[in-house]
Amino acid sequence: MERLLAGDVDLTPVARGASKPRQHQTHLKPEQVAALVADYQAGMGITKLTRRYNIRYETASRWLAVNNVPIRPRRLCIPASALPEIRELRKQGLSWAKIGKRYDCTGSAVSKAYAKLSTQAASES
Known about the structure:
The chain is mainly α. Among the domains are: 30-66; 80-124. 55% of the residues lie in helices and 0% in strands. It is built from 7 helices and no strands. It has helices at 2-6, 30-41, 46-53, 57-66, 83-91, 96-102, 107-124. Helix 6 (96-102) packs across helix 7 (107-124). It starts with a helix and ends with a helix.
């Protein structure tokens, strides 16, 4: 309130109708949808499909559902056998991001997978 009274706040009116630029939309042709389905059935993940076809995750999932393709559960980016190595790398001071580069995934994905696998390993012992 003090800044307002002192005149430090810009009170210039904003033009009506000013909005964000429109979001780019990619419309797939029927042959592209068929290729997307074939790529997924050949083992490509949805995230890679989004990059290849320049579409959102939800769009790729919807096209697979429309074509009656069962969605595979998301896989963890690290195998359970890597837990000891990752534990050692963390003790050495490596960040999740640097460890993720070794496994070709993001640091947050490694962190989440590590937590999930550690919990599973603890419950199995």
